[in-house]
């Protein structure tokens, strides 16, 4: 073995192995250093029989080693054979302890005391050796494991997989694949979307869920590990499930201490940040290059291309372009300015704030999943109430937001480097305003999938989006002519806080002085009266609380706790006081809100002194409403059973407005006293049904209604995700004749009925081939007069209640 190698490649995963293969093909003096006794430990540790994907499918593979989709065992066997036949110089069982020196003269020290010398070093060590550990009570128990070798080893167990990336999904699918093993498999995803995983894996998971082969728990995370049991934190509070084994696949972190000891800088101080890299993969330590997962590129085909490319660069091929160059060149061709791909990427990375922390490699990958636009001055980008869940970033120019639908001349600017459309991304609502190009602009449109992946993998981008959304929420809530400069201090000091269902954000009697905005979820306000907690108020997303103690300096007069898992924006009280002192109009608004809340308190106090039973009923009724989905609703149907005569006009009217298929089940649901919550859509603030809708067929209307459009493919994900059972899959009946034709000539079915022949065919199972689609209440969107169920009720028993009216219902029920 020669004393000095032209290049030492550390790590024999797909990136390192491909680099070594290219070095061997060029006759370059090289060594491939691997700390284990086998090649490609990353793939070797995949579960037995795993199908290895070769994505992206449109990306050309550059490598002297073959790779195509197939079983783990076949991929490894191919690489072992080719590594031997191509003369790759492999050193196994060699763990690197340190890298010292400079370009042309690096000393690589091994853990066993041996030393190697190389002119250049390629780090392809990945991140798999540094898995993220669970950080909950009980995380040191022995039934937690961070690797799954063979799913076939486990039988008759309750197994929970923690992690929603590709590894977690593949482990869950493998454990649930063989029914004979009789495992009960659950996978947890702390978010609603599987943003980190490949689309093919997500599809397989949804199919397995639909078939009942495993359980998917969204917006759920582990809270405590116990022997034989796992306590989960869900939107609605804690729940315990049986658990014999936990497979934790929550990602991994770069071996930062080792990498920084080599003289390499990272893009930020975040735990998940990646090393700073040049387009040729060179780090801030000249002569050391980083490729593969450590560079932020976990896909095998990307890694192998990087391995090929880095050796070409070291061999003097300075003109080599990445394999995705033709794809990006075609994508950027319509943009003005006649720039090259590298020039555009440099401009995007410098000008767009959410891209500032991305390496050129990460930015290239993001661009493959995004769309670039060039708009002329005044050109419409999107209109108010248009559907859309993508997010835009402005690379050049600025846009004008039309804030008044009746006066397009009233606009607010959004300048170069910022973003817009993030509200549709976060909430799924239709576009809240019309936006036009204020001047010629270049903008990047990130699909919902690409944007969510960016936020999940880039701490810097997530931080910027949070800051911008907080600023815009403050301006929207407080209004009063405020500008970005007015709220800059509040935005800078704001903090995002997650509150579990039932957890208090503010405690009665406490002397803290913060103000809170409800970003998502909802809160309930309670006060201790007569030795019990009495319900005072319900606060939906977009409300704020805590300002009373800040303004008058008094202790907290009530407790505020989460009705469901919620996210709050915490604002320091002193910064809030400074803001309202500078803005008299805002101060008047805050004082008016305080007066309203004091009126509610006075109502409760007065009822307690004169008639405790009434306030108890009021509090219990309000709690019943929250417990039955009001906590996350924006509009819900309630029925007063003292007035309801059981005529079913509400159901018939609903059916007659929707092809003969009612979206309402009057008799189903729960009741308290004489208040009934039937089975009908709540139009949740953050709809469960929107999660994992492949065609994005579920949208929000301008009035908050959640509806399913004609792009529904009948996958059933929404039906499974809805916790209230208000969505069902049904075949669409043929069109009915008009009501006049039925009245005059007896044509077709009567009001509220589907065609009789169609009903008979369904009953006799003759229409089984007809595809079923998801149906649910859409609040009679587009129908004049509003919800048909309410209009058809002859006694006024049926009412639809918006969040601001929930308390009024409870007060009426309480005897006011």
Uncertain ranges:
610-615, 812-816
Biggest sheet architecture: 7 strands, mixed
Beta-strand fraction estimate: 15-25%
Helix content: 25-40%
How many distinct helices? 24
- Look at the structure and give the CATH class of the largest domain: Alpha Beta
CATH level-two architecture of the largest domain: 3-Layer(bba) Sandwich
Specify the structural class. Answer: alpha+beta
Your description of this structure?
- By secondary structure, the chain is α+β, with helices and mostly antiparallel strands.
- It has five domains: 4-129 and 253-323, FAD/NAD(P)-binding domain; 144-248, FAD/NAD(P)-binding domain (3-Layer(bba) Sandwich), CATH 3.50.50; 326-460, Jelly Rolls, CATH 2.60.120; 488-599, Jelly Rolls (Sandwich); 625-732 and 770-813, Alpha-Beta Plaits, CATH 3.30.70.20.
- 30% of the residues lie in helices and 24% in strands.
- The strands form eleven sheets. Strands 1, 2, 5, 6, 7, 8 and 17 form a seven-stranded mixed beta sheet that branches.
- The longest helix has 27 residues, at 584-610.
- The chain is globular.
- The N and C termini lie far apart (92 Å).
- The model is unreliable at 610-615 and 812-816 (pLDDT under 50).
């Amino acid at each position: 073995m020669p004393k000095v190698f032209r290049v030492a490649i550390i790590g024999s995963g797909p990136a390192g192995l491909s680099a070594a293969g290219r070095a061997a093909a060029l006759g370059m003096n090289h060594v491939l250093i691997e700390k284990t006794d086998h090649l490609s430990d990353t793939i070797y540790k995949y579960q037995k029989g795993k199908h290895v994907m070769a994505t992206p499918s449109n990306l050309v593979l550059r490598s002297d080693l073959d790779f195509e989709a197939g079983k783990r065992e076949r991929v490894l066997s191919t690489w072992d054979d080719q590594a031997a036949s191509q003369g790759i110089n492999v050193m196994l069982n060699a763990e690197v302890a340190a890298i010292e020196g400079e370009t042309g003269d690096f000393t690589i020290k091994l853990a066993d005391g041996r030393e190697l010398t190389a002119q250049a070093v390629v780090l392809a060590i990945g991140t798999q050796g540094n898995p993220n550990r669970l950080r909950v009570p009980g995380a040191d128990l022995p039934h937690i494991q961070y690797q799954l070798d063979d799913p076939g080893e486990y039988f008759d167990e309750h197994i929970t997989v923690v992690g929603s990336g590709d590894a977690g999904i593949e482990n869950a699918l493998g454990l649930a694949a063989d029914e004979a093993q009789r495992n009960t498999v659950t996978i947890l995803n702390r978010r609603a979307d599987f943003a980190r995983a490949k689309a093919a894996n997500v599809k397989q998971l949804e199919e397995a869920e639909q078939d009942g082969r495993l359980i998917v728990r969204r917006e759920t995370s582990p809270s405590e590990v116990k022997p034989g049991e796992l306590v989960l934190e869900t939107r609605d509070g804690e729940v315990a499930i049986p658990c014999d084994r936990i497979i934790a696949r929550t990602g991994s972190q770069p071996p930062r201490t080792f990498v920084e000891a080599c003289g390499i800088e990272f893009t930020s101080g975040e735990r998940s940040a990646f090393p700073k890299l040049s387009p040729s993969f060179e780090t801030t330590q000249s002569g050391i290059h980083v490729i593969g997962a450590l560079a932020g590129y976990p896909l095998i085909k990307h890694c192998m291309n990087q391995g090929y490319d880095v050796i070409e660069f070291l061999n003097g091929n300075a003109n080599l372009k990445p394999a995705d160059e033709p794809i990006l060149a075609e994508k950027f061709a319509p943009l003005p300015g006649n720039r090259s791909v590298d020039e555009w990427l440099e401009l995007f990375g410098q000008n767009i704030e959410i891209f500032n922390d991305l390496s050129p490699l990460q930015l290239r990958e993001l661009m493959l999943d995004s769309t670039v636009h060039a708009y002329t001055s005044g050109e419409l980008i999107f209109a108010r109430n248009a559907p859309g869940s993508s997010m835009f970033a402005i690379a050049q120019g600025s846009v004008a937001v039309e804030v008044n639908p009746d006066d397009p001349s009233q606009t607010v600017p959004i300048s170069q480097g910022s973003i817009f459309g993030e509200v549709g991304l976060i909430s799924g609502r239709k576009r809240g305003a019309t936006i036009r190009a204020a001047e010629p602009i270049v903008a990047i449109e990130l699909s919902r999938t690409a944007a969510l992946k960016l936020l999940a993998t880039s701490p810097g981008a997530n931080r910027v989006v949070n800051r911008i959304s907080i600023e815009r929420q403050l301006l929207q809530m407080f209004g009063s002519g405020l500008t970005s400069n007015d709220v800059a201090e509040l935005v800078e000091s704001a903090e995002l806080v997650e509150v579990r269902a039932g957890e208090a954000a503010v405690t009665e009697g406490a002397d803290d002085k913060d103000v809170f905005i409800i970003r998502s979820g909802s809160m309930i306000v309670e006060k201790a009266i007569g030795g019990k907690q009495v319900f005072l108020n319900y606060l939906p997303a977009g409300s704020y609380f805590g300002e009373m103690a800040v303004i008058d300096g008094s202790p907290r007069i009530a407790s505020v706790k989460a009705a469901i898992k919620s996210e709050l924006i915490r604002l320091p009280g002193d910064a809030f006081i400074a803001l309202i002192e500078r803005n008299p109009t805002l101060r008047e608004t805050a004082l008016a809100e305080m007066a309203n809340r004091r009126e509610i308190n006075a109502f409760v106090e007065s009822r307690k002194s004169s008639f405790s039973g009434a306030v108890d009923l009021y509090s219990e009724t309000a709690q019943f409403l929250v417990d039955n989905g009001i906590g996350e609703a924006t509009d819900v149907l309630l029925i007063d059973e003292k007035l309801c005569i059981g005529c079913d006009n509400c159901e018939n009217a609903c059916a007659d407005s929707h092809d003969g298929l009612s979206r309402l089940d009057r008799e189903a649901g729960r009741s308290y006293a004489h208040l009934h919550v039937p089975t009908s859509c709540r139009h949740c603030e953050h709809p469960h049904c929107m999660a994992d809708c492949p065609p994005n067929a579920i949208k929000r209307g301008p009035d908050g209604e959640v509806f399913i459009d004609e792009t529904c493919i009948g996958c059933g994900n929404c039906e499974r995700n809805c916790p209230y059972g208000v969505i069902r899959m049904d075949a669409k009946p043929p069109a009915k004749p008009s009501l006049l034709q039925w009245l005059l000539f007896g044509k077709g079915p009567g009001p509220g009925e589907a065609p009789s022949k169609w009903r008979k065919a369904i009953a006799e199972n003759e229409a089984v081939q007809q595809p079923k689609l998801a149906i649910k209440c859409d609040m009679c969107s587009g129908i004049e007069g509003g919800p048909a169920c309410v209009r058809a009720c002859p006694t006024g028993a049926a009412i639809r209640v918006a969040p601001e009216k929930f308390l009024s219902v409870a007060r009426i029920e309480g005897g006011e």
